[in-house]
């Protein structure tokens, strides 16, 4: 069993509100995607993102907005972007959002392609597919967090992509989850419970300077 401290929540925690925060954060991500265009920089995209958040009535950020364009898509959230990168005509980018709605944390991420960039589209598709495989393995086999990331790494390699082992997923809950110090999903020795953990997937092309990212809340429902 998962130790209670790893999955502790606050008194106001509500699974329905977690789902609501998830859905609203996905709506924010889609709103930013609609504003992405060739020539835009990451900083300019973040300004656009703020407008989207206000329209949706968010309460606050719980982690900084991350928008990575082009070669910056190979970087992790702890690495600084090259500030000179702008979205090309045939290019890719990913969005990683952590927003609070009704006192609960949403955390989602996805990768998109503009123009004609088949290899970059393949990376985006692979990140989504890999997330789906790992999430299904959790639902059907009850794998631990450690086993999930071992499986993810094996599958990414089999699919022909480099897997970023520095990305290990994490806890979410009613804000702020950090008071409970749930730790990384990839370090969890037990099977994670539904509605409390974010599964993060980041891959990169084996030789070219681009990658893809996808993350979402692990839930017993596949939708």
From TrEMBL:
SUPFAM superfamilies: Creatinase/aminopeptidase (SSF55920). It holds the Pfam family Peptidase_M24. Residues 17-184 form the Peptidase M24 domain. Signal peptide: none annotated. It comes from the Bacteria. This is Peptidase M24 domain-containing protein.
């Amino acid at each position: 069993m998962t130790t209670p401290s790893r999955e502790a929540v606050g008194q106001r925690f509500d699974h329905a509100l977690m789902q609501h925060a998830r859905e609203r954060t996905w709506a924010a991500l889609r709103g930013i995607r609609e504003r992405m265009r060739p020539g835009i920089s990451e900083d300019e995209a973040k300004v656009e993102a703020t407008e989207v958040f206000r329209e949706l009535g968010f309460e606050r950020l719980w982690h900084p907005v991350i928008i990575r364009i082009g070669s910056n898509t190979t970087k992790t959230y702890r690495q600084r972007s090259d500030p000179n990168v702008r979205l090309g005509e045939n290019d890719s980018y990913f969005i990683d959002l952590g927003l609070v709605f009704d006192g609960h944390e949403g955390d989602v991420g996805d990768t998109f392609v503009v123009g004609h960039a088949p290899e970059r589209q393949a990376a985006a598709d692979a990140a989504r597919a890999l997330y789906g495989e790992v999430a299904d393995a959790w639902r059907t086999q009850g794998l631990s967090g450690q086993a999930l990331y071992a499986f993810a790494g094996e599958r990414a390699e089999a699919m022909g992509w480099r897997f970023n082992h520095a990305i290990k997923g994490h806890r979410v809950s009613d804000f702020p989850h950090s008071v409970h110090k749930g730790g990384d999903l990839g370090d969890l020795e037990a099977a994670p419970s539904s509605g409390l953990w974010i599964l993060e997937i980041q891959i990169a092309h084996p030789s070219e300077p681009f990658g893809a990212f996808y993350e979402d809340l692990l839930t017993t429902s596949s939708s």
